[in-house]
Design goal:
66% helix; elongated
Length: 65
C-alpha cells in the first residue's frame, strides 16, 4: 500500500461508522508495508550481528560500505 492509498483510507474513515475496525485494518496494512521496507534495507541482513555486537560491547563502530 502506498502513502497516497493510506491517506485516502484515513480520509474515508472520517465518514465511517465503524472507525475502530477501519483503524485496525489500516494499522495491519501499515505493519505489512513497514516489515517489507525493513526487510528491503541492506543492513537488515546483518541485524542480528549488529544487535549482538551492541549487547556484548561497550563501543561498536559501524561502517557503511
Amino acid at each position: 500500500m502506498c502513502f497516497n492509498s493510506m491517506q485516502a483510507s484515513l480520509e474515508s474513515c472520517a465518514a465511517s461508522e465503524d472507525l475502530k475496525k477501519d483503524m485496525k485494518r489500516i494499522r495491519s496494512e501499515f505493519e505489512v508495508e513497514r516489515e517489507r521496507f525493513e526487510r528491503a534495507l541492506p543492513v537488515y541482513a546483518r541485524r542480528t550481528d549488529i544487535l549482538d555486537a551492541i549487547a556484548n560491547n561497550q563501543v561498536k563502530i559501524l561502517d557503511a560500505v
